[in-house]
Amino acid sequence: WRAQLEGDLPKALEFCTEERLADIGGMPTEPHANEVLNKEIDRITRAISKEEARVMDGMSIQELEYQVQQQERKVAAALKKLDAVKLTLERLELGIDKRKKALLTIAKLVNQSVAHEFNDYMKQRGHNGRVKTNHKTETLEMEVVMAGQTKDAGKVSNTKTLSGGERSYSTLAFTLALGKENESPFRAMDEFDVFMDAVNRRVGTEHLLNFARKHPELQFIYLTPQDVSMLDKHRDDGFVHVQRMHNAAR
């Protein structure tokens, strides 16, 4: 048996290295070594079976392969959905960018329109006005140069420094300038002529009436405690309706 063992040694070493032989006690030299090897083989076989049972959870190789194929199909379907979602997201981002650019363009045009209209209303009383809007800082700057004053010396950037009538007229001019950009079908103003003198009140009221006539599709409601007898000449055409309230009982 020794000669046979020595003859099979090279082939055996292909499957079991010398390091592995050292781990299990070296090359067998006694007849009962076969029993030792068989026990080692049984031990290794049981270890392999136990590990396969743990990994495969009692399934056969065919069942495990089927499970792998099922999971691969699910992963492929999920990746396909993910690609579709990514494509939709890219389109949405492009749409958002276009809308942001359009919004900036519209904001710029609105700013220009309001600034032009405001200055136009101010010029009708001999004044000059400038409006500048900063959308990033969400601020609005208003500069007013009243009639008879130079641009440098008379420029006012804080309307609180204006007189009551000047501030009321500037506010009215700014409100009318904004009115063109407002899509609401109803417009209401309360005490628009407060602190105005008779001349500014007449001019301001005419501005409001002219604006209303240019927009017959809108309805305007103006409230004032002041005398409105100047509107009597407009009542005959049916365009203006004046509702006077009784004096409050004291």
Automatic annotation (TrEMBL):
Molecular function terms from GO: ATP binding; damaged DNA binding; single-stranded DNA binding
Localization of this protein: Chromosome; Nucleus
Record's keyword terms, sorted: ATP-binding, Chromosome, Coiled coil, DNA damage, DNA recombination, DNA repair, Nucleotide-binding, Nucleus
Transmembrane stretches, start-end: none
Occurrences of domain RecF/RecN/SMC N-terminal (ranges): 49-234
Chief location of this protein within or outside the cell: nucleus
Listed Pfam families: SMC_N (PF02463)
One GO CC annotation: site of double-strand break
InterPro entries, alphabetized: P-loop_NTPase, RecF/RecN/SMC_N
Coiled coil region boundaries: 34-88
GO BP of this protein: chromosome organization; double-strand break repair via homologous recombination
Family, as annotated: Belongs to the SMC family. SMC6 subfamily.
Protein name: RecF/RecN/SMC N-terminal domain-containing protein
Provenance organism: Pyramimonas obovata
Phylogenetic placement of the source organism: Eukaryota, Viridiplantae, Chlorophyta, Pyramimonadophyceae, Pyramimonadales
